[in-house]
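[Discussion] Sanity-checking designs against the backbone

I'm trying to build intuition for which residues belong where. Below is a C-alpha cell string of 764 positions. I'd appreciate it if someone posts a full sequence so I can compare it with mine line by line.
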C-alpha cells in the first residue's frame, strides 16, 4: 500500500513545474478581450475629475503589485493616478476647440513585473460630448436700416443672421424673435428660423420718423441660451401727402384808391401753402380758377394778389378758387378760396360783438363744419351718401367745389348739396376718403370737410391655392404626430381671417393647425389599416356672414407602412388569430369528409362485389341453375347495383324461338356456359333436396336465372337490348377447377337475341 502512494507523490512532484508553466500569464490583457479602451466625457467636465478606469488585468499598486502602467506621450491632457488604473483629466476639453482639444488619444504602456516579457501598449481614446455652453452670436450687430414709408407689409428690411458655435443639432439651432416694446409691431422676422426682418405694419413718416426694436436669437438647448441686439429703423418720407393752405378761406380788400397793380391786403393772413410731406417739403406754385380769376393777378411763387383795371370796374364781391400745386408732382395740390370785396362794402365779421350790435352776416354758410359719412362697399352707384346743408339769405344758385380732383372719380355733388356715389367702392382698395368742400353764391363762400368711411362687406369666399391636395408620405414613424403637408387658403376681403378644419371619414386621424399644416395623429398610427386617407378641407372666413370653400384632400401612405401599422394593431392580431383558427377547422372538416367518402366507397364495393365461388367446377348441365340454387351453393352471392337496376321486372325481352345450344362442345371438353342465361328450352335442374320443379310456362325459356319456381322468388328477365355479348366473370377465385380444366374468364353468350340487339361489351 505504501509503494503506490509513494509513486503518486513522485508523479505529482515531477508534474507540478510543467503544470505551472502551462498556465497562461494574462497580466496586461484587457478584461473585455478588446485591444483599445474608449471613454466619453462631457466638455464641461472639471479638471481633476476621473474620466474612467482601465479594465486591464493586474495590480498596479506600488507595494505588492504585479504590473506597472505609464503614459508614453509627453504632457498629455490626461494622466494616470499613481498606483491605480484611474485616468484623470489634466486640462479642460472643449468640443468647439476653443478652451482645449475636442478629443484625446494616448498610449498606455503596461509592464509585467518580475519578468523579462516585453511591454504591452494599450491605446486609449477619450471623446468629448457637446453641451450647450455657447449662446448665438449676431453678425454685424447692432443693425440700422432705412425704409420708405410707402413700403408695404412684407417688404424685406435686412438680414440679421446669428451663429451658434455649438455642435450642429438642437444646441446650434437658432430661433429669431422681436421682443415686445415700443414700435415692435412695425417689424418682425419672416420666420422664427429665418433671419430676414420684414415690415409687419404700414409706416407713416409724419407720425413716426424712426424707432428702435430689440432682436433676440435663442438656441434650442435646455435651458436655452440667447443673445439680444438692437435694430434702428429710419423712416424715409415719401410723396404721399398733398400740400395744404394755411387757411381754407381768404378775404382780399380792394381799397378805394386802388389802381392797376395794387397789391391787395389779404386776411386772416397772406396766401400761403406748403407740402405736408415734411421730409420732402416740395415747393409749390399758385394759380387761380373759376369766375373772376382773370380779374386778379396772382403771383405764381409768392401767392400775392394784385388788382387789375378790369377788377376796379367790375361789380364786387367775387369769389376765386386758389390752387397750390407741387412743382415736382402735378397730382399733388390743394384748394382754397378768396373773396374780393371793396373796402366800403366790407361786412362785419360774425363775432359775439357783431351779434350784440345787431350786425347781420348775409353770406352763405354750411350748417356744420364737418360731415362724416359711413357707406357699405356694396352700395350701388347713384346712392345719396349725404346732404350738405347750407344757410343763405339770398336765393342765388349755389356752386360747390372740392379740394381734390380725385373726388370726381367716385363721387359727385349736385346743386342741392347732395353727395352722390358715381362708381362702386372697394374696401380693400381704399377704406377712407377725406375732402374739403367749398360752397359759394357768387358773392360769399364757406368751406367744410367731409369724411367718407367705407364699410367692409364679406363679398369674397376663401380660396385654396389648389383645387385638390394630394400628399404622399415616404415613411411613417412608429410614434408621434407626422407632418403631412400644408393647406394654403386666402381671402380677398381685407382683414378677414381664414380658419381651416377637416371633415370626412378619416378626419379623426388628421388635424390641421393655425398655419394650415396637416398632421397625422399619433394615436391614428396604431389603427392605420389603409394606404389612402380621404378628408375634405373647409376654409371659413371671419366675415359677416361667414363664407366657406371646401376642397378634397388625399393622403397616401406606403403600403408597407400601412401593413406594418395594421400588424401592430391588437384588433388585427385578434383577427389574424381568428382566421388561423378558421383555417384549422376547415382543414379538419376536409380530412373528415375525405375519410367518410373512403368508408362509403369501401361499403359500396363490399355490397356490389360477389363472394368468391367454390373451387368445384360447375357442370354444363347445371349451368342454367336459378339464382336461388346458386345462392344456396354459395357460388354467386349478389350482382352489382347497376345490374340490379337493369333487372327491373322485365320478363319478355328475350326471343322465345331462339335455337337451343348444346351442352358440350364438339371436342368433348367441359365448358362453362353463362350462369345467368340458361340454354333455350332447358329446364332448371332439381333442387338439391330432390323436389321437382314444374315445367316452365309458355315463354319461360326467355327468362334469366331469376325464375318463378320452388325458390319462391319472382322471375326477372334481362331486357333484350341490355344483355351484353360478352360478360365479365364475377369472381375473385382465380384457381382452376378441380377437374383440371382451365377456367375461361369470358364466356360467349349463346343467345341470338343478344347479338341481334346488343353489340357492346359491359364490365361489372
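Best answer:
Here's mine. Compare freely.
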Amino acid at each position: 500500500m505504501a509503494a503506490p502512494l509513494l509513486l503518486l507523490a513522485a508523479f505529482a512532484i515531477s508534474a507540478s513545474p510543467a503544470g505551472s508553466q502551462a498556465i497562461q500569464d494574462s497580466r496586461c490583457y484587457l478584461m473585455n478581450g478588446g485591444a483599445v479602451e474608449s471613454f466619453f466625457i462631457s466638455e464641461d467636465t472639471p479638471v481633476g475629475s476621473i474620466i474612467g478606469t482601465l479594465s486591464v488585468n493586474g495590480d498596479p499598486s506600488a507595494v505588492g503589485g504585479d504590473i506597472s502602467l505609464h503614459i508614453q506621450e509627453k504632457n498629455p491632457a490626461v494622466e494616470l493616478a499613481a498606483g491605480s488604473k484611474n485616468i484623470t483629466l489634466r486640462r479642460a476639453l472643449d468640443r468647439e476647440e476653443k478652451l482645449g482639444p475636442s478629443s484625446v488619444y494616448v498610449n498606455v504602456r503596461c509592464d509585467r513585473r518580475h519578468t523579462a516579457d516585453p511591454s504591452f501598449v494599450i491605446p486609449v481614446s477619450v471623446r468629448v460630448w457637446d453641451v450647450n455652453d455657447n449662446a448665438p452670436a449676431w453678425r454685424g450687430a447692432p443693425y440700422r436700416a432705412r425704409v420708405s414709408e410707402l413700403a408695404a407689409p412684407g417688404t424685406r428690411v435686412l438680414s440679421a443672421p446669428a451663429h451658434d458655435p455649438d455642435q450642429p443639432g438642437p444646441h446650434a439651432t437658432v430661433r429669431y424673435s422681436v421682443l415686445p416694446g415700443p414700435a415692435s409691431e412695425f417689424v418682425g422676422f419672416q420666420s422664427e428660423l429665418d433671419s430676414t426682418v420684414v415690415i409687419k405694419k404700414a409706416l407713416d413718416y409724419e407720425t413716426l420718423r424712426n424707432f428702435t426694436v430689440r432682436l433676440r436669437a435663442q438656441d434650442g438647448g435646455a435651458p436655452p441660451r440667447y443673445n439680444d441686439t438692437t435694430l434702428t429703423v429710419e423712416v424715409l418720407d415719401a410723396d404721399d401727402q398733398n400740400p395744404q393752405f394755411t387757411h381754407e378761406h381768404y378775404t382780399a380788400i380792394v381799397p378805394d384808391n386802388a389802381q392797376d397793380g395794387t397789391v391787395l391786403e389779404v386776411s386772416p393772413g397772406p396766401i400761403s401753402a406748403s407740402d405736408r410731406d415734411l421730409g420732402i417739403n416740395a415747393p409749390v406754385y399758385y394759380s387761380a380758377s373759376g369766375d373772376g380769376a382773370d380779374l386778379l393777378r396772382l403771383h405764381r411763387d409768392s401767392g400775392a394778389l394784385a388788382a387789375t383795371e378790369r377788377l376796379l370796374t367790375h361789380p364786387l364781391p367775387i369769389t376765386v378758387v386758389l390752387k397750390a400745386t407741387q412743382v415736382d408732382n402735378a397730382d399733388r395740390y390743394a384748394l382754397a378760396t378768396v373773396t374780393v370785396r371793396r373796402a366800403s362794402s366790407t361786412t362785419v365779421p360774425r363775432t359775439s360783438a357783431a351779434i350784440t350790435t345787431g350786425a347781420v352776416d348775409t353770406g352763405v354758410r354750411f350748417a356744420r363744419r364737418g360731415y362724416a359719412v359711413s357707406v357699405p362697399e356694396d352700395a350701388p352707384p347713384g346712392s345719396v351718401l349725404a346732404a350738405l346743408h347750407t344757410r343763405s339769405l339770398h336765393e342765388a344758385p349755389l356752386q360747390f367745389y372740392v379740394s381734390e380732383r380725385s373726388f370726381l372719380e367716385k363721387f359727385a355733388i349736385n346743386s342741392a348739396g347732395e353727395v352722390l356715389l358715381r362708381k362702386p367702392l372697394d374696401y380693400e382698395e381704399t377704406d377712407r376718403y377725406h375732402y374739403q368742400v367749398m360752397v359759394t353764391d357768387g358773392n360769399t363762400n364757406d368751406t367744410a370737410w367731409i369724411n367718407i368711411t367705407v364699410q367692409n362687406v364679406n363679398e369674397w369666399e376663401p380660396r385654396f391655392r389648389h383645387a385638390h391636395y394630394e400628399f404622399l408620405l415616404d415613411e411613417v414613424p412608429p410614434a408621434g404626430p407626422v407632418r403631412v403637408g400644408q393647406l394654403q387658403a386666402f381671402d380677398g376681403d381685407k382683414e378677414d381671417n381664414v380658419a381651416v378644419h377637416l371633415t370626412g371619414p378619416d378626419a379623426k386621424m388628421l388635424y390641421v393647425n393655425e398655419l394650415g399644416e396637416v398632421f397625422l395623429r399619433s394615436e391614428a398610427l396604431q389603427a392605420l389599416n389603409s394606404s389612402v386617407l380621404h378628408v375634405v378641407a373647409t376654409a371659413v372666413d371671419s366675415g359677416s356672414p361667414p363664407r366657406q370653400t371646401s376642397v378634397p384632400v388625399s393622403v397616401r401612405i406606403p403600403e408597407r407602412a400601412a401593413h406594418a401599422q395594421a400588424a401592430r394593431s391588437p384588433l388585427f392580431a385578434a383577427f389574424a388569430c381568428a382566421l388561423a383558427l378558421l383555417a384549422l377547422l376547415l382543414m379538419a372538416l376536409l380530412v373528415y369528409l375525405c375519410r367518410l367518402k373512403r368508408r362509403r366507397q369501401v361499403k359500396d364495393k363490399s355490397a356490389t362485389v360477389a363472394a368468391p365461388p367454390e373451387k368445384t367446377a360447375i357442370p354444363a348441365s347445371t349451368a342454367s341453375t336459378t339464382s336461388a340454387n346458386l345462392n344456396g351453393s354459395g357460388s354467386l352471392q349478389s350482382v352489382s347495383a347497376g345490374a340490379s337496376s337493369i333487372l327491373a321486372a322485365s320478363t319478355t325481352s328475350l326471343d322465345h324461338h331462339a335455337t337451343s345450344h348444346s351442352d358440350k362442345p364438339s371436342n368433348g371438353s367441359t365448358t362453362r356456359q353463362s350462369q345467368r342465361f340458361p340454354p333455350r328450352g332447358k329446364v332448371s335442374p332439381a333442387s338439391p333436396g330432390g323436389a321437382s320443379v314444374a315445367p316452365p310456362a309458355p315463354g319461360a325459356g326467355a327468362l334469366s336465372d331469376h325464375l318463378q319456381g320452388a325458390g319462391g322468388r319472382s322471375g326477372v328477365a334481362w331486357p333484350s337490348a341490355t344483355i351484353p355479348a360478352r360478360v365479365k366473370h364475377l369472381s375473385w377465385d382465380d384457381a382452376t377447377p378441380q377437374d383440371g380444366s382451365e377456367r375461361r374468364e369470358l364466356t360467349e353468350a349463346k343467345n341470338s337475341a343478344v347479338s341481334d340487339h346488343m353489340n357492346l361489351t359491359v364490365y361489372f
